[in-house]
Amino acid sequence: MKTKPVISGWKLFWLVAAIVLALTASILAIHPDPVQAMHVVIRVTAYTSLAPFLAAFLASPMATLAPNDFTRRLLRERRYVGLSFAFSMLVHLAAIFSYGVLNAQFWPSRDFLTNTPGTIGYLFIALLAATPFRIFSRHLSAAAWKRLHTTGVWVIAIIFGLSFLKRIPTVSELYVIPLLIVCVAIAIRLTGKRAQAKRRTGAQIRKSSDAHFNKTVESAA
């Protein structure tokens, strides 16, 4: 019995991109007030960005902690999931700038400190989105690539968490829900990385033991 083909690769990316654009267009069409509509787009695209980010963030640890067809497929598609996240954040950024144009009070109400986390986050998003392409990745060593991705995903995860945290007392207590989701994701990633480290240590010990055993046998012979 043949299984249905799973959407993967660039098809997966374009599917997510189409969903984000369709949601954005729908919101703009439904709301009569363009300022309010753009504000809603900012909120919605924050969540359409969070979902693929967490999928990419958890792909490796979940493949370790719960190896199955789904987690292995998610790990294989991590590149395109990450690019989908970057696209959604690009739409989010466009909505922010559009809101700033429509609402003259928006940018004057912000200062350097309030803009810094988002600026840092978008810098890492741009760097991470560039690395899957050979024209950029060829300039990075494997170690530099790994350091960039490790640092980048952690910075973005923390920025997501802080952005939800600061909105709990000022906007809505419901922001505690996405904050808890981010915290759980961080806990899962830490647990998965610890399990991966233990596996690597165990493999090194077994390799060392086998080498010592073989050397002992050769000496005895």
From TrEMBL:
GO terms for cellular component: plasma membrane. GO terms for molecular function: FMN binding; heme binding; oxidoreductase activity, acting on diphenols and related substances as donors. Keywords: Membrane, Transmembrane, Transmembrane helix. The keyword Membrane applies. InterPro entries: MsrQ-like. The keyword Membrane applies. The chain crosses the membrane at residues 12-31, 37-59, 80-99, 119-136, 148-168, 174-192. PANTHER family: PROTEIN-METHIONINE-SULFOXIDE REDUCTASE HEME-BINDING SUBUNIT MSRQ. This is DMSO/TMAO reductase YedYZ, heme-binding membrane subunit.
